[in-house]
């Protein structure tokens, strides 16, 4: 038994001694995750959407539908920031965007936004899921 314990301790000591060390900049625990959604460039959307995902059985494509019930891009205080030109999902990897954005109105006033992001490959799906993981953690949804 002592021999087995000794061998296991040698194994774990050797694997940790030669394991690559991550720099603090690459460690997930030392850097906060950054992910935002914008409808107007430079104006972060504060409303957290309801998201519905569908994916083809073979994983070759998928659709994400976002529903924002009270987006701040319609607020009078943010009107001078610009016009809605699309939905931009921004994180440390870059940007994913769609121009399939529709607003619904009630009595002439905008009420909500529905945006659709279409993924045409498994690579786009994986990229989108990495964004959503960061977005969820950034907004306390995890």
Explain how this protein is built:
There is one protein chain. Helices cover 23% and strands 34% of the residues. It has 142 residues and is α+β, with helices and mostly antiparallel strands. It has a single domain, classed as Photosystem II Psb28 (Elongation Factor Tu (Ef-tu), domain 3, Beta Barrel), CATH 2.40.30.220. The strands form two sheets. A four-stranded antiparallel beta sheet has the order 2-1-5-6. It has a four-stranded antiparallel beta sheet with strand order 3-4-8-7. A hairpin with a 2-residue loop joins strand 5 and strand 6. The longest helix is centred in the last third of the chain and has 17 residues. The relative contact order is 0.18.
Concise summary:
This protein has 142 residues and is an alpha+beta fold.
Query: Quick one: overall form?
Result: globular
For the record, the CATH class is Mainly Beta
Biggest sheet strand line-up: 2-1-5-6
Rounded average pLDDT? 82
Give descriptors for this structure.
142 residues, alpha+beta, Elongation Factor Tu (Ef-tu), domain 3, four-stranded antiparallel sheet, 2 helices, 8 strands, disordered N terminus, PSII_Psb28_class-1, Photosystem II reaction center Psb28 protein, Psb28_c1_sf
């Amino acid at each position: 038994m002592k021999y087995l314990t000794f061998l296991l301790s040698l194994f774990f000591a050797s694997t940790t001694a030669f394991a690559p060390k991550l720099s603090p900049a690459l460690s997930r625990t030392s850097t906060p995750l950054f992910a935002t959604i914008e409808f107007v460039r430079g104006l972060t959307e504060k409303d957290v959407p309801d998201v519905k995902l569908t994916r083809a059985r073979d994983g070759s494509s998928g659709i994400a539908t976002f529903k924002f019930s009270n987006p701040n891009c319609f607020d009078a205080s943010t009107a001078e920031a610009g016009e809605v030109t699309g939905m931009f999902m921004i994180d440390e990897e870059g940007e994913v965007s769609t121009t399939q954005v529709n607003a619904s109105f009630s009595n002439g006033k905008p009420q909500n936004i529905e945006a659709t992001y279409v993924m045409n490959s498994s690579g786009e799906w994986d990229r989108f899921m990495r964004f959503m993981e960061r977005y969820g953690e950034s907004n306390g949804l995890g």
